[in-house]
UniProtKB/TrEMBL annotation:
Residues 663-782 form the Methionyl/Valyl/Leucyl/Isoleucyl-tRNA synthetase anticodon-binding domain. Pfam families: Anticodon_1, tRNA-synt_1, tRNA-synt_1_2. A motif ('HIGH' region) lies at residues 47-57. This is Leucine--tRNA ligase. ATP binds at K590. One of its GO terms (cellular component) is cytosol. Keywords: Aminoacyl-tRNA synthetase, ATP-binding, Cytoplasm, Ligase, Nucleotide-binding, Protein biosynthesis. GO terms for molecular function: aminoacyl-tRNA deacylase activity; ATP binding; leucine-tRNA ligase activity. Residues 38-224, 425-625 form the Aminoacyl-tRNA synthetase class Ia domain. The keyword Glycosyltransferase does not apply. It comes from Nocardioides flavescens.
Length: 821
């Protein structure tokens, strides 16, 4: 054929590959030394089945597949699995919008996405796929929950929680963005509920420390985001006596400013405020609280928010100087950070200063920075300076020493201790939603919380067809009487199942381990299989998961290690975040009407051209503006490459050693450089280099060594193998036209003769008195001066002119030096 029929080529090879299954993990041939091939685990984030695949999926998997396919070509045994994160809000909300049962809707989408992925020719090992909503999987999610609980890492507590009034569910702090629900954008409010938590705070320090090691191989922004989220602060707990009450402890990062404390503030919505308030002040506090409950944490912490609050009518004693400080309640102090109470140092903390200004409270400078007195300017000074008004610290200039001194004093008289505080909160995992993994606990009046015995797992999610499964504040499961009412596993008496389901992030915190032994029935994973594959060598996915998912997965890994099931502490050795596919400079969205449908692009240009476009657009981390790229251009390039394969006239296996050296050098250089470029994720540059090789080969065929030259075959075969990482259909078709069996995906990385990589040289002849005395190998662009110097220092030349006077040196670089004596 003389025209490249993209769609015919696609259906032809898809059928062959479905038969061949060339990407089964464990199928790599042993190395030349007879040893099993080295293992590589290429992981990419699994999708939510909330519709068909879109441009974002197309991009991330195209980039990811370059790595996986490259590893296969290099002879590694590659695990490249895929499955579905099929429980949870995204699929559930989409199902309700479509008026379907979440299970029906979810599994239909999975089938659609599976077919699309296969068509899109990502080298997944489909034999390992599973869905987190499969009972065979969530049985082990439940098992893990129970193990965590046994270790004291899963517990229930009553607390105010973030509540999304639209989704009718509790949200983790992580799911509240700018005071709004991360998923639906509704304004988040607060509610009191008894909820399940994972005690991730037990691992706060370790989660932080692990980042040091990941810094070299993880994107900097992810490491920074995790550090900030964990939010370690060094400081002190300082205890203030309050007459008639228990003492109150505050957390401060600046114990050295203790002499500048002029009042105390407690979180208005914490029980502490209610317990301290005098009877006269109680009505004022309650009125204030009604207002506070409406504000989000973000608003409350905003520095530009007008300060509000009420005095509680009591005073606290400053432990270093005995001063009586009025105690206020305000919403700018958060109930769940530190101790929920602060010592206010208005001179050196702007929020305290704003509060002092609003309520006319005293301001006392204790660090003289040389700037104007904050008491006059109402601008807090936060820099370093000399301590003043600070008793034993006066005159000192060293902040670290100041902090140390005060902590020592507090510790000596028992009124405080040095401490470390973390911003990280425990992970709230209960969801009042139907479509999730049931929590394997029953509540018995007599025995309290009782774990469902292991041999009764999984606790199946009841189908409840026909029932109203939409969220309404309590889990819809609570209304499923037949399911909820059970016998207590301990006493046999009446008990009720926990009707909440787990946060989807629980499901995705261990799925990468399950892929190592997806059919395993004796535990969540086969410890030995995991030892072979994990940690994943690369994790490709969106930066939107920089905090939540990645932190939770790291937490699970550390707990499983402590359970003796893993022998490593970090699950993902390296990470790559792709940019977004945008259009006309903007995020694609329905309201802007700038969405680009993956399906129509695939229809118009074919799979390979779309994949090539996504990989070629720029560095993987950069956004791709669909308005700036050219899938049509990609397709034309693929046609050019494909045409080469029809022009080759030499036979497969021909001795390439006799081929045209110039073309062979281009091929060798391209293959060699591709290796280095791929290792540093510069996939777009690899594509550019393959384009150059295609051009060089075309030239060689049309006006150089001609199509029969073995170097042409070598070049076109290299093009096919390199293209197999990005454009698998075209590559396979080329490979076939070159006389090979499928599949090019496992053909192996082209070998390169190192001699071809040496930069070219030319021979320069050196004559003395007209006689050739030396031949020098020099670069073709050697300078006249360098060539002359080389000639005059050559041993044979030095001997030939010994004792004679050099009268003239004629240089014709790069070929000739003529020395006249
Ligand atoms: C006195 C002080 C003086 C403070 C000063 C700062 C500067 P990070 O670094 O984020 O941990 N703080 C403590 N608990 C709080 C809460 N629940 N809500 C709001 N603010 C709280 O911040 C710790 C500092 O934030 C603490 O140190 C405390 O103010 C405030 F010149 O104490 B500092």
């Amino acid at each position: 054929p003389t025209t490249y029929d993209v769609h015919a080529v696609q259906s032809k090879w898809r059928a062959v590959w479905d038969e061949l299954e060339p990407f089964r993990a464990g199928s790599a041939a042993p190395g030349p030394d007879g040893q099993p091939a080295e293992k590589r685990y290429a992981l990419t984030m699994f999708p939510y089945p909330s519709g068909d695949l879109h441009m974002g999926h197309a991009e991330v998997t195209a980039l990811h597949d370059v790595i996986a396919r490259y590893w296969w070509q290099k002879g590694y045994d590659v695990l490249n699995p895929m499955g579905w994160d099929s429980f949870g809000l995204p699929a559930e909300n989409a199902a309700f919008r479509n008026d379907e049962h979440p299970a029906t809707y979810t599994y239909a989408n999975i089938a659609t996405q599976l077919d699309s992925f296969r068509n899109y020719a990502i080298s997944f090992d489909w034999s390992r796929r599973f869905n987190t909503s499969d009972p065979e999987y969530y049985r082990w999610t439940q098992w893990l929950f129970l193990k965590f609980r046994e270790r004291g890492l899963a517990y229930r507590k009553n607390s105010p929680v973030n509540w999304c009034p639209h989704d009718q569910t509790v949200l983790a702090n992580e799911q509240v963005v700018d005071g709004r629900c991360e998923r639906c954008g509704a304004e988040v409010t607060k509610r009191e509920l008894t909820q399940w938590y994972f005690k991730i705070t037990d691992y706060a320090q370790e989660l932080l420390d692990g980042l040091d090691e990941l810094e070299a191989t993880w994107p900097a922004r992810v490491v920074t985001a995790q550090r900030n989220w964990i939010g370690r602060s060094e400081g002190a707990h300082v205890t203030f006596e309050i007459a008639g009450h228990d003492p109150v402890t505050v957390f401060t990062t600046r114990p050295d400013t203790l002499y500048g404390a002029t009042f105390m503030v407690v979180a208005a919505d914490a029980p502490l405020a209610a317990s301290l308030v005098t009877d006269e002040q109680r009505p004022a506090l309650e009125a204030y609280l009604d207002e506070v409950r409406k504000a989000s944490d973000i608003d409350r912490l905003a520095t530009d928010r007008p300060k509000s609050g009420v005095p509680l009518g009591v005073t606290a004693t400053n432990p270093v100087n005995g001063e009586q400080l009025p105690v206020w309640a305000s919403d700018y102090v958060l109930a769940d950070y530190g101790t929920g109470a602060i010592m206010a140092v208005p001179a050196h903390d702007q929020r305290d200063l704003d509060f002092a200004k609003a309520f006319d409270l005293p301001v006392r400078m204790v660090v003289d920075t040389g700037e104007d007195d904050p008491a006059a300017t109402y601008v807090a000074t936060t820099g370093d300076g000399t301590y003043v008004n600070s008793g034993p610290l006066d005159g000192l200039r060293d902040k670290a020493a100041g902090i140390r001194t005060i902590i020592e004093r507090l510790e000596a008289d028992g009124s405080g201790t040095g401490t470390v505080n973390f911003r990280l909160r425990d992970w709230l995992l209960s969801r009042q939603r139907y479509w999730g993994c049931p929590i394997p606990i029953v509540h018995c009046e007599k025995d309290g919380e009782v774990a469902v015995p292991e041999d009764q797992l999984p606790v199946l999610l009841p189908e409840l067809r026909g029932a109203d499964l939409k969220p309404q504040g309590v889990s819809p499961l609570a209304a499923a009487t037949d399911w909820v009412e059970v016998e207590c596993p301990t006493c046999g008496g009446p008990a009720t199942r926990d009707s909440d389901t787990m946060d989807t992030f629980v499901d995705s915190s261990w799925y990468f381990l399950r892929y190592c032994s997806p059919q395993y029935t004796d535990g969540p994973f086969d410890v030995e299989a995991v030892r072979q594959w994990m940690p994943a060598d690369i994790y490709v996915g969106g930066v939107e998961h920089a905090v939540l998912h990645l932190l939770y997965a790291r937490f699970f890994t550390k707990v499983l290690r402590d359970m003796g099931m893993l022998d490593f502490s970090e699950p993902f050795a390296a990470q790559l975040n792709q940019g977004q596919v945008i259009n006309e400079g903007k995020k694609m969205s329905k309201s802007l009407g700038n969405g680009v449908q993956l399906g129509s692009q695939l229809e118009e240009f074919g799979v390979d051209a779309v994949r090539l476009t996504l990989v070629f657009a720029g560095p993987p981390e950069d956004d791709i503006d669909w308005a700036d790229v050219s899938p049509g251009g990609s397709l034309r390039f693929l046609q050019r490459a494909w045409r080469l394969s029809g022009d080759v006239t030499s036979e497969p296996g021909v001795d390439v050693g006799t081929g045209d050296v110039a073309l062979r050098r281009v091929t060798a250089r391209t293959v060699h450089d591709a290796d280095e470029l791929l290792a540093s994720f510069r996939f777009n540059v690899v594509v550019a280099r393959v384009m150059e090789l295609v051009n060089a080969t075309r030239k060689a065929i049309d006006s150089g060594c001609g199509p029969a030259d073995p170097a042409v075959r070598e070049a076109v075969e290299a093009v096919a193998v390199l293209l197999s990482l990005v454009a698998p259909y075209t590559a396979e078709e080329m490979w076939s036209r070159l006389g090979h069996e499928p599949t090019v995906a496992r053909a192996g990385w082209p070998s390169v003769d190192p001699a071809l990589l040496v930069t070219e040289s030319v021979t320069a002849v050196v004559q003395v008195k007209g006689k050739v005395k030396a031949r020098l190998e020099v670069s073709p662009d050697v300078s006249a001066a360098d060539l002359e110097a080389l000639a005059l220092t050559d041993e044979a030349v030095v001997r030939a002119i010994e004792g004679q006077q050099v009268r003239r040196v004629i240089v014709r670089e790069p070929n000739l030096v003529n020395i006249v004596v």
